[in-house]
Amino acid sequence: MTDKLIRNARYILTMDDAHRELKEFDIRTRDGVISEIGPDLAENGAEVIDATNCVVTPGLVNTHHHLYQSLTRAVPGGQDALLFGWLKTLYPIWARFGPEEFFTSAQVGLAELALSGCSLTSDHLYLYPNGARLEDTIHAAAEIGLRFHPTRGAMSIGESDGGLPPDALVESESAILNDCIRVIDAFHDPAEGAMCRVGVAPCSPFSVSRELMRDAAILARDKGIMMHTHLAENDEDIAYSQAQFGCRPGQYAEDLGWTGADVWHAHCVKLDEQEIDLFSRTQTGVAHCPCSNCRLGSGIAPVRALQDAGVPVGLGVDGSASNDSGNLIAEARQAMLLQRVTRGADAMSAREALRIATRGGAEVLGRDDCGQIAVGKRADIALWDVSGIESAGSWDPAALLLAGPMQVRHLLVEGRQIVRDGQLTTIDQDAVVATQNRLARQLAEAL
Ligand SMILES: [Zn+2]
Q: Ligand 1 center to residue 64 CA distance, Å?
């Protein structure tokens, strides 16, 4: 691949250890890696990307998503429901999905992420009806060119066993574990610079058994991969844990091996002081999903307290059925605003929220090769044009979340430019939108 030279950036927000903000510097990328940072770098045959009007940041990192849900945005019966009621509305629709639905909705979700500056995303896919497989999403990510951490999710307790999902959407626990092994062996790449890393991710403590939670943790540690699930999302979730397991979610997670630097939990809105301390001691990560938490009325996650306790925190847009948007830079702004609602205007700065959205997310996903602009790190770089209307009059363009664009101008992943002038270079965006709308219409007509 030709070297790229990002020239004359207005600001580079490096997110490095020294929190440096560089003015009018250049960045050279070579073979997927940042090879040089400095003023007035020599061209030497590199492809030049003019960054004169741009704030340059590491690519954003999304730590929680259900890409398949982009086919069920704004479903009328779920628009105003709480979590459990919302799930019951959507399960019968998801039960009709097959491989084409999973592939196309993943493409849409990934495209939206890329356009909002995301270079690395995880995904949590926990239902596999009608022949769907994890690789339906892996192929979509490879085509778009995003760095991808798919997790093999699962549900095993259906309605007839007292669970929430219909029986048609759950799998046997032996089939789940066997398929986890299959996808890890086929797709997981532990190497530095990996474009695909697989995790295991039972859907939540209320949709799988205690045994599966424990066995999934044993398998993950045996394979050296990460683990992910939903935890302590809202009051119903806490009440379920106390009624079914006789303890709070933090205790349940700890008892079954679900704490540690190789674990990250989505939401964690209702963690109490002891649980925050547990996460801090064990370096268990959190995927904070502020829009989803607002949309479902779940509450405000204690992100200020988590940050102060040194818990690794990243951002997640969550699935499009509960967000309904998948814009990651908008999510970062929402994270900044939401902490201020209860904690005051100094609870979270624009810079701190952006750091959570980049470096923070990379740390949660165990990627110390991503999430910062430093020599030797992967060339995942977002360029934000601050010459537009939304930034006009800003006294501090580097405070990107206060007055910045909601879409990226250029995006590099592993040194490859996958967004150029606000357009994806790797897929035909209009064709994907048309396919997605056709599939959504078919699903609606079948109800
Ligand atoms: Zn979720």
A: 6
Contacts of 137 by beta carbon, 8 Å cutoff, 6+ apart: 67, 68, 102, 103, 106, 123, 125, 148, 150
Ligand 1 geometric centre to CA of 306 (Å): 19
Q: What is the pLDDT of residue 206?
A: 80
Q: Ligand 1 centroid vs 65 CA: distance in angstroms?
A: 6
Q: Separation of 266 CA from ligand 1 center, angstroms?
A: 7
- Ligand 1 centroid to residue 260 C-alpha, Å: 20
pTM over 0.85, yes/no: yes
Quick one: tokens of 142? Answer: 């490879």
Residue-wise pLDDT for 113-140, tens only, equals: 999 999 999 999 999 999 999 999 999 9
Residue 46 above 90 pLDDT?
yes
393 CB-contact burial (10 Å; exposed 0-12 / middle 13-18 / buried 19+): exposed
Which residues hold their Cβ within 5 A of ligand 1, which is an ion? 318
